[in-house]
Write the C-alpha cells for this entry.
Amino acid sequence: MALSSTTKWTLQSLFSIFFKDLKTKLEENNFPNASKEPLKKKIKSLRQTFKQEDQKIEDSMKSGVSGDIIYEPKLASFSAAEYLCSGNINADS
C-alpha cells in the first residue's frame, strides 16, 4: 500500500518530533552524545528482535505442539513491546 505525500510528510514530522523529544530526555539523563542516527539504529534493532521473537512464538503455535511447549521469548522487554504493538496505548498516559 502506497502512502500519500501528505501522510509521508505527517509521519516524517511525527518522527522528527519524537527523535527531538527522545534526544532531550536522553541528554537530561546524562547521555549528552545522543544523536538521531544511533537512536534510529537502536530502535530498528529492537523492532527486528521483537519481530523475530514474535515469529518464533507463532511458528511454535502453528507446529501443532502441545500448549506446554510453546516458545517462551528470551527478550527481557518482550511483554512491554508486545503491549505497545497491541494498540492498547492511552495517549494521555
User: Anything to note?
Assistant: The longest helix spans residues 36-62. The chain has three helices and no strands. The chain has a mean pLDDT of 75. The chain has two domains: 1-34, 36-93.
